[in-house]
UniProtKB/TrEMBL annotation:
This is DCA17 factor. It comes from the Eukaryota. One of its GO terms (cellular component) is Cul4-RING E3 ubiquitin ligase complex. Pfam families: DCAF17 (PF15802). InterPro entries: DCAF17. The gene is Dcaf17. GO terms for biological process: protein ubiquitination.
Length: 547
């Protein structure tokens, strides 16, 4: 190499190295000006703003409905998904309002579909959020989340089965459509005709929407005692009537028993059927035929088929399969079924509603155990001097505020007579503050709880925001509407929004929308329901109540 060339190469080397380093860091998400970094910074700022003392959540509007109300990512759906309202604005903004649908077009289930990052998609509409809905007549529709326009239509099957449920195998990647349990008409059962097919499963890859296969869950293969099935994270979960839960590798089933792949919209002539895949009247071919019992990955017996997997290393949670053990949870290693040290968890509470336990959705491997007045966040860690065994240890606890509880066991009448009650209050008695909902806000890393106290007909609830790492109370948000513990309730905390959906008797539904406000002059408005002036307005044939 000549001196000039060597000098040029030497002078370029640092720059080439920097470019390589830049590209490497960019590939790993370390580019300071990319959208992800900006988004994380914005969420960090929002987290700080929410935690400020001057920040309040105000009930900005309310609406009521005679049909169920659903919420998905800033959108409120009413009238069986025929009406969509943007919940972000301080006043309700109707994104779309469709004419009332007939019973044959009723939507049975829905999933929100969001655009995957870093992939080239065939249609511009694929880059926007859409809603996958399943109708009562076995139609699978993909709707625009903002306009309700039908983007795709797939006919699943004719009357031999009724598809009812949508779920994710892999979130935002692989979707499963499950039928209701297949039952023969009463006349057929009376003459002892046996139906061997219990469920049908149709599997799709999403965005672009493509058909993977359809299969039967047959009692001749999986046994007569099958009561339900599910698919999650590549595992086929089969539940039996005696509490037995069996796991199979779903990907292996697809590969081993698929007879022929098919593409949506393509003509087919197969097994005596001819038509177009996904079009009426043929629907989808049953191209996965399980002819033999698949290899069993794992089985366990649990009360009411309750079974969860999570943690690190992998563990599972069950309740021993006897009624006397209800409310007792065993945490065991998935590797060898060994019970973890301190792996038997029991609240020892006396309540009408049972306590519940689950793996923390923040992927930390921790466990959340919720009782009427106590929330325990547990963690798995190695036993000291024994790396082969894990133990369950307490990470932190959240305790309900029962400091002001009155002892009602002894009362004094007007005449001065002392009356003693012969019973004690239950741990979840409505007159004592009781935890009803625990949720995780993944974008802000908050753990939220809803606690309720009801004295007489008047119930009061508040949503508390806790530090997810240590459990410290960061903010308490009072819910101004009365809370009846006998009704069904859902509460969503989604960044700067709190949404309360209530189901009253006779299919009456209410939706209360709270939004973050930072104006200190309005503190009293947010906390005093009586001072607020209520205004009624009609939009799109629907009445809204404003504050």
């Amino acid at each position: 190499m000549c001196p000039q060339t060597a000098t040029s190469a030497a002078s370029r080397a640092p720059r080439d190295h920097n470019v390589y380093g830049f590209l490497t860091r960019r590939a790993h998400g370390f580019y300071a000006r990319d959208a992800g970094v900006s988004h994380r910074k914005n969420l960090g700022l929002l987290r700080k703003i929410i935690c400020q003392e001057s920040t309040k959540f105000k009930n900005v509007w309310t609406t009521h409905s005679a049909s169920p109300i659903a919420y998905e990512r800033g959108r409120i759906y009413l009238d069986n998904y025929q009406c969509c309202i943007n919940s972000i604005a301080q006043e309700p903004r109707i994104l779309y309002q469709k004419p009332k649908c007939s019973k044959s077009e009723k939507i049975e289930d829905a999933l929100l579909l969001e655009c995957p990052l870093g992939e080239m998609l065939p249609s511009p509409s694929d880059y926007k959020s859409s809603l996958i809905v399943l109708t009562v007549r076995n139609w699978l529709l993909r709707l625009s989340a903002d306009s309700g326009e039908v983007l795709e239509k797939i006919y699943l099957a004719d009357s031999y089965c009724k598809f009812r449920y949508l779920s994710w195998d892999t979130p935002q990647e692989v979707m499963v459509v499950k039928s209701a349990q297949n039952k023969l008409p009463a006349a057929a059962r009376q003459v002892s005709i046996q139906e061997s097919v219990l469920f049908y499963l149709a599997v799709f890859q999403v965005l672009p929407l493509s058909f993977i296969g359809m299969l039967e869950i047959n009692k001749k293969i999986f046994g007569n005692s099958v009561t339900d099935v599910a698919v999650s994270n590549g595992i086929l979960i089969v539940m039996h009537s005696m509490g037995l839960v069996r796991l199979y590798n779903f990907q292996t089933i697809l590969e081993q028993f698929m007879e022929q792949p098919f593409d949506l919209g393509h003509e087919f002539n197969w097994n005596g059927q001819a038509g177009v895949v996904g079009k009426y009247p043929f629907g989808l071919p049953r191209n996965i035929k399980i002819t033999d019992t698949p290899p069993l990955l794992f089985e366990v017996s649990s009360l009411e088929n309750a079974f969860q997997i999570g943690g690190y290393p992998w563990h599972y949670i069950i309740t021993p399969n006897k009624k006397k053990h209800k409310g007792i949870f065993h945490i065991c290693s998935l590797k060898d079924n060994a019970l973890a040290k301190n792996g038997i968890q029991e609240m020892k509470c006396c309540s009408l509603e049972p306590d519940w336990i689950y793996f923390h959705p923040d992927m930390s491997g921790r466990i959340i155990h919720v009782g009427p007045n106590l929330i325990k966040v547990l963690k798995l860690k190695e036993v000291k001097n024994n790396t082969e065994q894990m133990e369950v240890a307490e990470d932190f606890t959240i305790v309900a505020n029962r400091e002001n509880c009155v002892d009602n066991t002894v009362t004094v009448t007007a005449s001065g007579r002392v009356v003693k009650k012969r019973f004690n209050l239950l741990d979840d008695d409505p007159e004592q503050e009781t935890f009803k909902i625990v949720d995780y806000e993944d974008e802000l890393d908050f753990l939220s709880t809803v606690a309720v106290t009801q004295i007489g007909a008047d119930g009061r609830a508040h949503l508390d925001i806790h530090c997810n790492e240590h459990g410290l109370l960061l903010k308490s948000i009072p819910l101004l509407e009365s809370w009846d513990v006998t009704y069904s309730h859902e509460v969503y905390f989604d960044k700067d929004l709190v949404l309360h959906i209530e189901q009253k008797p006779n299919r009456r539904f209410s939706c209360y929308v709270y939004q973050m406000v930072c104006d200190t002059a309005k503190d009293d408005e947010c906390s005093n329901h009586e001072k607020n002036e209520r205004v009624f307005c009609k939009k799109g044939g629907r009445i809204f109540e404003y504050t």
